Amino acid sequence: MLKVHSRCDLACDHCYVYEHADQSWRQRPRYMDLRTASAAAERIAEHAAAHRLPAVTVVLHGGEPLLLGVRRLREILHLLRRRIEPTSRLDLRMQSNGVRLSEEYCDLLAEYDVRVGISLDGDRAANDRHRRFPHGGSSHAQVLNGIGLLRRPAYRRQFAGILCTVDTANDPVAVYEALRAEEPPLVDLLLPHATWAIPPHRPHGEPTPYARWLLAVYDRWTADGRPMPIRLFDSLLSTGAGGASGNEWVGLDPADLVTIETDGTWEQVDSLKITYPGAPATGLSVFTHAVDEVSALPGIARRQTGLDGLAATCRACPVVRQCGGGLYAHRYRDGTGFDNPSVYCADLKELIVSLNARTSPTPVPTPPVVDGEGADLPDGLLDRIGSGHTAEDDLRFLTGSHLAITRALLVTVADAGSADARAGWELLTRLDQEAPEAVEETLGHPYVRVWAASALPGPGRVDRGIDSHLSCIAAAAAVRAGASVELDVPMRAGVIHLPSVGALALPTVATGTATLTVTPRDWTVRHGAERARVAFPDEPGTGEPQVTGARWQAGRHLPFGGSTILFEDLDPYRDCHDWKAAERVDPPQFAAWREALARAWEAIEADVPHQASVVRTGLRAVVPLLDDPTGTLRSSTARQAFASIGLARADGPATAVMIVHEFQHSVLGALLDLCDLFDPEHTARVKVAWREDPRPIEGVLQGTYAHLAITQIWRQRARRDGAGSLADERHRQYREWTADAADALRGSGALTPAGERFVGHLAEALTR
Q: Could you give the angle at which helices 587-607 and 697-721 cross, rounded to 10 degrees?
């Protein structure tokens, strides 16, 4: 990379050269003179000859290279061709903002066969978000004029492609359409430069917004037949098939890029300017040092060692050969340097897992778990969860992982599914491009994953027609999106179930399929001679829908902690708990549930205030369970139904204990999806005080972790009620039970290193 000019005529606020830590450009010459260019050309030719390189790529960069002017640019191009071409084929490139491109420049680029990449972030609104002139004016029209020149037949060969920096505030599909309209031969989608010291913007704390944005582009690009290469996607697809990356952003290809500044100093890759002042500096110069001396420097040599050059967390990750640890500069953290995963680690993993699920002919049902070190988890997550102090960001990470697993399951079901399942999948895929929030909300319903796990192809599947429920899921997403669609949906005993939306029952019991037509104003159902319609008020929320020919039961929510929670007494896959789910709850019982949950929330705030916000954020649904005739309080968590709990109604304080207890089970279950805390081959059972029968390791781990939270509740109540109270006795009992069980777990020999660490934090929390 030849920095031929160190200034720019735009003032892009995300520029890594001018807006980040390293400001060495201020001391550089404004442009590279011929003496320096000649020395650079000599070093390049010398290196090519010594290593017998068949080709060398030189990228003219800046700042803005076109600020050189036509005369100076011609002199440098002539010098490079004259000196390097006799030794090695020279591939000349330029990266430009395009605003100064003219016919005179294009003629020069064609004469010396220079291919030009243009920076463009999408349509005018997207591009003007960052790429403006110093006076604040838009650069969009000038950039399009420049691209228009390159699209002419005389200059088409010189058009290398478009470089676009991702901003999640921009509509991904609109950006894609704007880029595609320019007919580029290639598109580069780049994540905005960031480090652990200056992390990327994540709207509303969303754990993987960049993955979501890129996947929306990928899906539209795929639906369009992939009209032009998109380098990031092509690199990930290539590495997924065992090929090379051809890209320094992902994969394990050795780094092969070095920079020459306007004064002739050698520098490492220029993206390091975002990390700290002087980060890319080498102390070497083209006037005194050869390329081999530069490539031997530790910072460059490390980036040529592939897997061995990555942090331990990355080496243990199942997608490392595709991710490659991400861009080197994005790994920087104060104190540990570059020995870290990328600050975009969660986004890259979500992107790769989702792309693999979309493209694999036999996708795995879940993303692969990490090893027993827990190295693939975000910093501190394992320790915080183990100590009972799960943070809201931790919960968002678990929620995102749960969603990724659900999506992978859906792909597997759809690939082997019936015609109805495939039609539902195609609709869901389209809606995922047009209304991703509606799809995400629908797939986040806890019992979608329960259904998907039971619908996986194989000998364990009991109901052969179960996969057609995918069309009901797609219809629910269409309702949330306000889309107009028509598709065939299955009926169970004459009822059409739309997850979390509601259930529509036809007057006579029927099986098979019905045709459902959804519009924003009404829904109609046709099954043989039967017709049903649900018509909604013109103004949403102003009245009940008018139903003819059917019985409509809407999904209901209850207030909980200043928000709402789904009261799930309709979904056909909710009855997966170890106690029977109740049928539809009548209005008086529903009112009683409202009161019980309100009082339970008051108790949670009073008894475990450090957990209250996490429970409020994470708990998505409550399934009412039948009362136990013996009077035993019943609650339950299903492993596949993350963020949902089953409850039999009780008074507020007792309900609070059950909610916190089951929520801990749900959190630990989501963690076990991602990290092995124990050896699954370990068959020995462990005796615990709260059960008569010895328990398997996972059962002991689940019970111990849930009891940590119950111990904290009784401790807080004992503080209020005083020594000798029932609460004090309960606190002592649960504390002893939990401590003994933690000791038994650590002495079992079944825990992985991550499990030892997790239980250690649990035991430490008890002592505190």
A: 80
Contact 625, 582 (CB under 8 A): yes
The predicted pLDDT at position 606 comes to 92
φ/ψ bin of 333: left (φ > 0), alpha (ψ from -120 to 50), beta (otherwise): beta
592 sits in which H/E element = helix 587-607
* Global pTM value: 0.56
For the segment 283-309, the average pLDDT, to the nearest whole number, is 85
> How would you list the strands of the sheet with 485-490, edge to edge?
485-490, 513-518, 522-527, 530-535, 546-548
Integer distance in angstroms from the first to the last C-alpha of the chain? 56
337, 335, 310: which is closest to 325 by C-alpha? 310
CA gap 469, 443 in Å, rounded? 13
542 versus 253: the higher-pLDDT residue is: 253
d(CA 721, CA 202): 44
Q: Residue 465: enclosing H or E segment and its boundaries?
A: none
> Residue for token digits 């030719």?
45
Nearest CA to 523 out of 509, 502, 541 is that of 502
**If you search the block for the tokens 């090379």, which residue do you land on?**
244
Bond preceding residue 63 cis, omega within 30 of 0: yes
- SS3 (DSSP) at 355: helix
Asked whether the beta carbons of 582 and 624 are under 8 A apart, the reply is yes
Neighbours of 588 (CB within 10 A): 8
Residue 370 has pLDDT above 80, yes or no: no
